[in-house]
Design brief:
Helices cover 21% and strands 33% of the residues.
């Protein structure tokens, strides 16, 4: 028995937030929307992928954003991501506490915390 990879990370979102999520994850972060299977599409939400990253945004009626829990998204070009997010009004909080990495935290349009990180070269 071996655990080989994380297939996806799911974050919650409030009902009716799909357009804002598409604009953020697709438009700002540059991820591709992945079609949901028909049986799951009826539940709302949306799925995204980029390279080896898959994020599922599921609708939760009593939604509360994840303030501490978060996916850590490994990127290249972290300064460009920070600039792109800041230009769209996102708060960027740089944190140098992780040795060997540059990283910052931000939030998606529904308030979920995201960590964006890049190994130092």
């Amino acid at each position: 028995m071996t655990l080989t990879a994380v297939d996806h990370v799911q974050l919650a979102a409030p009902p009716g937030s799909e357009d804002a999520l598409r604009a953020f994850y697709g438009g700002v972060l540059g991820m591709d929307e992945e079609p949901k299977p028909p049986a799951l599409a009826a539940r709302g939400g949306c799925w995204f992928r980029s390279a080896g990253v898959r994020l599922h945004l599921g609708i939760e009626e009593d939604f509360r954003p994840a303030r501490k829990a978060h996916p850590g998204l490994l990127v290249t070009g972290i300064d460009a991501y920070a600039a792109r997010l800041a230009a769209r009004g996102a708060d960027i909080t740089w944190d140098d506490a992780l040795p060997g990495h540059r990283r910052f935290h931000t939030h998606d349009p529904v308030g979920n915390r995201l960590e964006i990180l890049e190994p130092r070269t």
